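FAQ
Q: What does a multi-component entry look like?
A: The components come first, one per line:
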Amino acid sequence: MKNQFSKSVVAILVSLLLPIAVLFITVKVAAYRGDPDQVDVKLKSEHIPSVDHSQFEILQQDFEHPRDVTAACLSCHTGRDEEVMATAHWKWEREEEIPGRGMVSVGKKNLLNNFCTGANGNNGSCMRCHIGLGWKDKSFDFADNLNIDCLVCHDQTDTYFKQKGQGGMPATTETANAAYQVPDYPYVAQNVGLPKKNNCGICHFYGGGGNNVKHGDLEEALLTCSKDVDVHMAMDGPDMACIDCHTTERHNIMGKLYSVSSANTNRIHCEQCHTTTPHNDKVLDNHFEKVACQTCHIPEYAKANATKMYWDWSSAGQTDESGHGYSEDDADGNHNYLSIKGNFVWDDHVKPEYYWFNGTVDHYLSTDTISEAPVKINSLFGEYRDSTAKIWPVKVHRGKQIYDVDNNTLISLKLWAPEVGQGAFWKDFDWDTAARLGMEYNDRPYSGNYDFIASEVYWPINHMVSPKEQTLTCIECHQRDGRLTGLNDFYLPGRDYNKSVDYAGFGLIFLTLIGIVAHFLGRIVAFFKNR
Amino acid sequence: MKKLLIYTACLMAMISCQTRPTNLTVDMMVDLANEVVTTVTPAELMNIMETEEIFNVIDVRQNNEHYYGFIPGSVNIPRGSIEFNIATETFWETEGLYMPEKKETLILYCKKGKRSTLTAETLMSMGYKKVLVLEGGWKNWEMTYPDYCDKNLEMLAGGPAKHDDGGGC
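Then the predicted structure of the entire assembly, as tokens:
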């Protein structure tokens, strides 16, 4: 009798404990995460010049003009001018194939955007970020190698600046003021080296007219940031410079900007250092096929300073009682109204939007007409069925900008001029004149009839990589209202469901439980009957 | 037996103390509050504003954040004082509004949604039945309805002109 009882107890214990043990082991195995592989590469290049430029006699002269410095550079660095003049940094355009359009020339020189609408015609202001000296108008000679500004990229002293409003020229004795003095050319020329963060950032951090306006993930905070902002560039981390990832061969810098380049070439990729299976975890590594590294590892951008998310040009031009432009701020101290530019919405710590992207991009070209609203300034190609496409985090900058109602085209505006009365909108607040002069400069027709139309531009996010502890958790995408709610062309576990399948599954579980309970009760009844 | 009861009571008291989470980070607090708080999108809030008669939109940010931009018609009660002001007749009189009853709809917003979520949990524990939080807060509203935003230019310019109440010569 005692033996019978102990057998029954063991049976009950086994029937209870065994499923629990199986469940426990299953959960443990599913939750197992391997330790990520260590990156086995040199993170930071040693930016030590191989020669001491201060020893060269040719650099010890009193240069009067930056062109003289360029001539001195090229006297030793022969042939480098040809390399520089072949790059997009010099030409501001490149021939690329856009799927469905064939070969076209795209670049800052001829593309429109929904920030300041376009550079061409606003040379005094915009061409300050060209690597040439004095691209003030169409007469700029792209074949003249002495127009190359070597110092803006190679200065190590942080004292060389291009002056505002001078089309890329530093201050001269005629134009110098309190903000911009004539550079000490011998000092700068004797202290040159590989580009530092500052050299790249002086243009790439301030695109769109201010810090972090355009990109959202490229801004001056990266100069001295912590790991929370960017694990690669962090001062308390590897402190990598731009060129450590954007490796350069003969002045051709790898890793062109996704939003203004069309072909998927000359890119840099995370796997160059991290391999395609960096997680040491099969489930996570499998995501690599369809999810860009950036998607999980950049959960938010604009982590230090805000970025511009919305720009409404239609409200620009309002003036105060005395006819002067004015500004208003938002609660964080960013301008949210400027008479010269209109209304803005800024945001920081922004969650990206997510899109399929295969690395190729279409653009609104200056010869295009508007076919839809909002106008897509660029369109990222890709879909789930495209084996080369991945889910990417994207900043979408939306706005309203001026367009020609009769010709149905976006307008290139003349915004900048040195003086009042020259037709620039930022000085005269006259939309019609600014539109006419801007279109004239760009050799495009203008009917004289304008209005404003919604537009959007897509900026894939690449920088501000978070520490691994701050990467996206599974549940942020694998849930019904998660981050990937907008991508509906595929089945995502945890998000997508079918009511019939769900009911059938729950029904089976319910029936199984009933079966277990009935079996258990049957055994109990049988036990007492057998006694 | 008596001792056994006392020991059991002490044990239960200790267990009940352990059920209240402590040492939480603010994100954990927000996550916990999110489990009980209902959110609305900007479009849903716009629909409430257009169709319902009795509701209150409350901006729980600080005054100096509110003045720079807010949802038209919203009242500013900073989170730090909302427990005290929400049921204070004189506060609502100053705002020129009726004090909301506990069954009325309250829609809260802050800059991005965290402060308002914590505030909503507090108001719910005070007995307010229908407290909603604007998803993504003011920034989401600003992006969704950029043409339907307001500013308090008078306060931004330093507030109303000061009166000289007389006295002296």
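Q: Is there any commentary attached?
A: Sometimes. For this entry: Residues 93-129+194-476 of chain A form one domain.
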